[in-house]
Amino acid sequence: MTEATTAHAKRPGARLGLEWLFGAPAALFVAFFSIPLVALAWRAAESGELWDSITSDLVLDALRLSAITSTFTLAIAVLVGTPLAYLLARRTFPGKFLVDLLLDLPIVLPPTVAGVALLVALGRRGLVGEWLDGLGLDVAFTTAAVVLAQLFVSAPYYIRTVKAGIESVEPVYEGVAWTLGASPWRTFRRVTLPLAWPSLLAGAILCWARALSELGATLIFAGNFQGRTQTMPLAIISAFESGRTIDVPIALSVILVVAAAFLLLLLRLLARTAPSPV
Fold this sequence. Notes:
CATH topology of the largest domain: MetI-like fold
Strand content: under 5%
CATH superfamily of the largest domain: MetI-like
Helix content: over 70%
Oligomer: single chain
Order of helices and strands: HHHHHHHHHHHHH
């Protein structure tokens, strides 16, 4: 940066001019995101039937199913996704580029496309589902289908975050552990995992939040059956389609907004308190 540029940047007038220039569109954009959430909170606060809606069978069934399926989804993502993230971060193998591409696709694909893909693969007449049906295993339109749909769209967030965390750990520390006689598993458990732990937590939060909010893939692959496949986003659609009072969708929306805000706060706290990889 030249001295003239530095002097210009230090002038209060130059900075104030940018603030005035960017302030108005920035404020409009903040209002665009804020007003719908404020309206939702206001409508929930003035509703006299909100508590009755929250404790209704539709809401409680959807809340229970969402909590169970998203937790199962997260457990599978951690157990299977962590080894994959480690291999992608530390190893070179044939087809690695293709695996990376496959992990990115569910992130950018519309969820409805993911649901169609799961249906033609695991449905009763699907590529693999026809074989499973011969064994007496029916996957589509069951609670297991909800977990698989959530896993398909949410696990890449976990794997990507954990992969970045492992890559941030200097390989030299793993090498020192190996020279001291530690096995690869012990090195991963005692060296790599503690240093990458903040990324694992962040990835788990993102994965769980994405699974909790999943809609399109679940609707197509699992259907919308109360108590069996109807998660909270699907229950919102059902409440509107049934012509019920708007208090039920508002109650479900408030629960999801509170859960999302809580998860975002956890991510912010984690980013502030996490130690830097050495």
